[in-house]
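testing teh design pipeline on a random one, pls ignore if ur not involved
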């Protein structure tokens, strides 16, 4: 079984490491912050034990946990067949990382990005082997969401693209194949349109946050509405993605409302801090936040 290196032990990186370990892979989870690694491994322990108790994973929770090995640097990269970066949505940071990985990893190693907005062709531009760079855009919380966009850059080889689709299938996830390398790919462009409209309706006082979310749930069979989705992903992440769209000349994909920036400024980053478009209690209760109080 191949080795997988996941770079970045945040909410998404930890989830990707978990589903890869559940798929039987040996996973190296890298982060320069020891506290981030410790926190994520604790979250993986909780998540795998919960899934195991419900019979939703084949192996024991302990077996899955043992297949994830925390590491502080990238020295293991040459020994891995898959490298998935899950760092901040910053084009320069990702480009520099791929350039460094390209220099040390065997040409057979697939270099993948979990970017949600930046074209893969741009991220591969500093590498000598752009044919092995691919997009693997997971959706969070990863252990609960089966969707992964597999993005083919302009230089991604057909063999690497097919191999990546097979890899996602081996994790028990569903690969949506993105055949043209455009900003935002497929799903974020669709959900972004819904989120832009939802924000506009709330800002104009036409609807409440709760009614929009409940309406999408009861009327269109969404498991959760656009504001809950934003809270799960992180409002700071949404803001960074919007700025990335603007830098890519795709500003029409980002929300025009100023609410998002005000929320981030106020420290309301979403579920990860217990407050976003909703206030969250430890026992799982949610109360909609009145965005009209923001200055």
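output:
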């Amino acid at each position: 079984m191949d080795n997988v290196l996941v770079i970045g032990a945040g909410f998404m990186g930890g989830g990707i490491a978990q589903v890869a370990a559940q798929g039987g892979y040996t996973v190296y989870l890298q982060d320069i912050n020891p506290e981030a690694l410790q926190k994520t491994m604790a979250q993986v322990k909780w998540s795998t034990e919960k899934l195991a108790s419900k019979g939703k994973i084949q192996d024991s929770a302990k077996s899955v946990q043992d297949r994830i090995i925390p590491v502080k640097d990238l020295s293991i990269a040459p020994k891995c067949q898959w490298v998935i970066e899950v760092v901040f949505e910053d084009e320069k940071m990702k480009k520099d990382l791929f350039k460094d990985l390209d220099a040390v990893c065997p040409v057979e190693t697939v270099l993948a990005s979990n970017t949600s907005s930046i074209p893969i062709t741009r991220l591969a531009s500093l590498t000598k082997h752009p044919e092995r760079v691919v997009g693997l855009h997971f959706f969070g919380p990863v252990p609960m969401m089966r969707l992964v966009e597999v993005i083919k850059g302009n230089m991604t080889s057909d063999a690497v693209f097919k191999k990546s689709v097979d890899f996602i299938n081996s994790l028990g996830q569903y690969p949506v194949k993105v055949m043209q390398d455009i900003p935002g790919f497929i799903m974020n462009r669709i959900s972004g349109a819904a989120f832009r409209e939802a924000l506009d309706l709330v800002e104009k006082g036409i609807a409440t946050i709760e009614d929009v979310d409940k309406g999408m749930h009861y009327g269109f069979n969404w498991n959760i509405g656009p504001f809950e989705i934003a809270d799960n992903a992180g409002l700071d992440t949404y803001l960074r993605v919007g700025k990335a769209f603007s830098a890519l000349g795709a500003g029409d994909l980002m929300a025009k409302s100023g609410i998002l920036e005000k929320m981030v400024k106020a420290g309301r980053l979403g579920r990860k801090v217990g407050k976003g478009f909703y206030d969250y209690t430890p026992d799982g209760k949610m109360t909609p936040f009145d965005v009209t109080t923001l200055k």
